Amino acid sequence: MTDQRVAVLAGGFSLEREASLRSGEHVLGVLRESGVSADLLEPGPSVLERVRDYDVAFLAIHGRIGEDGTIQSMLELIGVPYTGSTAPFSALAWDKPIAKGVLQKAGLPTPRFTLFSSAGLRELGAAQWIRDAGELTSYPVIVKPAACGSALGVTRVQTPEELPRALMHAMAYSDFVLIEECIHGTEIAVSILDGEPLPTTEIEPQIGKYDYAARYTAGATRFYIPARLDDAILESATEVALQAWDVLGARHLARVDMIVDRDGIPWILELSPCPGLISTSVFPMAADASGLGFPLAVERLVEAAVRDA
Q1: Model confidence band, residue 147 (pLDDT cutoffs 50, 70, 90)
Q2: Over residues 133-140, mean pLDDT
Q3: DSSP 93-147
């Protein structure tokens, strides 16, 4: 791999810019320590011209542009191999309600949800729609943007009175919003490297929920690898995660976020085709726990990008 010139694409203009830069810098350091010629490039007017000078693009851009198929389409257009899912399947995973619909059609467990839109609220009567949703929904529920990452804009709603504010908060991040059934249980994540599952990670926030701060602040969350669940449940969760990988067309790497309920059923919350890659992120820790190590995982990702170009 040392003869490949790698452009690590990170940063961007989304609200996840800081987390993306930290992921990119971590990957950049690993590549350079392995003797690879690598540079970090940020999205901007000249990035496509600059990236032509590299053999491979390692994608670490979180949020829009990086996860919705945009940068993937541009790299395909100019013929530069890149890590991660292809453009259409990146767009599919990025759009939570469509991805959940695909999962449901495949018979995979994912929480039930109702979809709201800002246009619908404006044009069909916001007050009545919100009131009806409050009356017909069993609480608590999870309100989240339909297209956003790193748990931004997510609120756990306990009562109907809290719902309008949570919807408005989520709509600051996306025009479409999900009201999702709240599954009670153990939060886990299954990381997948080139189709192979890594050890399952159990996630235990020290305070509150596993939100943006808990994801990117050292010590804010306790992780257990492997998760403290029965072997049969871990095997079932891994199998469900691999099925999600297949039906959502994931490639090279992904993290499948799940909650295992009291009956041992693993419910898919979402699949991230561009997971966080800082040292305290789930994917690098799972790679280390597997015995492979994150540096070798990065090497395999670069090789996979070249292989699948």
Answers
A1: confident
A2: 74
A3: HHSHHHHHHHHHHTT-----EEEEEHHHHHHHTHHHHHHHHHHH--SSEEEEESS
pLDDT for residue 130 is more than 90: no
Rounded-to-integer distance, Cα 101 and Cα 88, Å = 16
Instruction: Write down the pLDDT at residue 136.
Output: 61
Same domain, 105 and 118: no
CA distance 84 to 50: 20
Residues 144 and 75 in one domain: no
CA trace torsion 43, 48, 51, 52 (10° rounding): 180
pTM above 0.85, yes or no: yes
Q: Give the residue carrying structure tokens 């504010």.
A: 165
Q: What is the DSSP string of 98-112?
A: HHHHHHHHTT-----
CATH number of the domain where residue 257 is located: 3.30.470.20
CATH number, domain at 57? 3.40.50.20
CB count within 10 Å of CB 252 equals 24
Secondary structure class of 270 (helix, strand, coil): strand
56 close to 6: Cβ distance less than 8 angstroms: yes
The residue-averaged pLDDT of 168-190 equals 93
Query: What does the alpha-carbon distance between residue 177 and residue 113 come to, in Å, rounded to a whole number?
Result: 10
**146: domain range?**
113-181
Give the CATH number of the domain where residue 161 resides. Answer: 3.30.1490.20
The pLDDT tens digits for 68-105 are: 999 999 999 999 999 999 999 999 999 999 999 999 99
